[in-house]
Amino acid sequence: MASNALTGKTVAFLVANEGVEQLELTEPWQAVKQAGGTPKLVAPEGGKVQAFNHLDKGDTFDVDATVDSAAPETFDALVLPGGVANPDQLRMQPAAVGFAKSFATTGKPIAVICHGPWTLVEAGVLKGRTITSWPSLQTDVRNAGGTWVDEEVHVDTNGPGPIVSSRKPDDLKAFCQEMVDVFAA
Questions:
Q1: Considering Cα of 85, then 114, then 139, then 101, what sign does the dihedral take?
Q2: Roughly how many angstroms between the first and final C-alpha of the chain, as a whole number?
Q3: Which CATH architecture has domain 10-184?
Q4: Which residues contact residue 176 at a Cβ distance below 8 angstroms, ignoring those fewer than 6 apart?
Q5: Residues 6+ positions from 94 with CB-CB distance below 8 Å
Q6: How far apart are CA 76 and CA 51, in angstroms?
Q7: 177: number of CA atoms within 13 Å, CB side?
Q8: Three-state SS at 25
Q9: Of the candidates 173, 178, 152, which has an alpha carbon nearest to the alpha carbon of residue 163?
Q10: What are phi and psi for residue 37, nearest 5 degrees?
Q11: In terms of Cα–Cα distance, which of 67, 66, 147, 162 is closest to 112?
């Protein structure tokens, strides 16, 4: 990853206030920072985000903006980390779904991992797209009109903007590299 590949770019990390998988938040966050980008944590409510290490509470992180106050046009890209509870809560928040949908419909790049695609399923933006995810989401992806593949990392360019996707925390190294490359393009 080039140390300045994302200089001048601001990347939204959209998460629920509770339930994000900590490694799926912190490793892409660090990759954006190391590439010179500015990550911003966006959540339904202000204050803190409670991360989890699978089912155990992890660290808390400060919210930079709420979905109601964050303007999608001020961001260059979107990251949707996983954790089972995180996207399950986000897809019940119309403002969060709309925030994610705006990136997909305006062609801004999106990176999504694990259970994160649930938010994209709810946003109705996977028709004709090919992504990977945690295996339990494959039927949801197909029902949303997408194609599911079992790959470490997949980049789909069959839409307004690219979607980088990965399955799980074990894929984070490949995911972060591809995310930075796609966001820098």
A1: positive
A2: 12
A3: 3-Layer(aba) Sandwich (3.40)
A4: 1, 27, 28, 30, 31
A5: none
A6: 24
A7: 6
A8: helix
A9: 178
A10: -85, 170
A11: 162
Q: What is the pLDDT along the chain (185 residues), one digit of tens a residue?
A: 557 999 999 999 999 999 999 999 999 999 999 999 999 999 999 999 999 999 999 999 999 999 999 999 999 999 999 999 999 999 999 999 999 999 999 999 999 999 999 999 999 999 999 999 999 999 999 999 999 999 999 999 999 999 999 999 999 999 999 999 999 99
Angle of helix 172-184 versus helix 22-34 axis, rounded to 10: 40
Structure tokens at 83: 């954790």
Which residues form the catalytic set? 114-115
The rounded distance, in Å, linking the Cα atoms of 147 and 127 is 8
Determine the Cα–Cα distance for residues 49 and 52; give it in Å rounded to an integer.
10
Q: Which two tokens stand for residue 37?
A: 């980008």
Which pTM value belongs to this model? 0.97
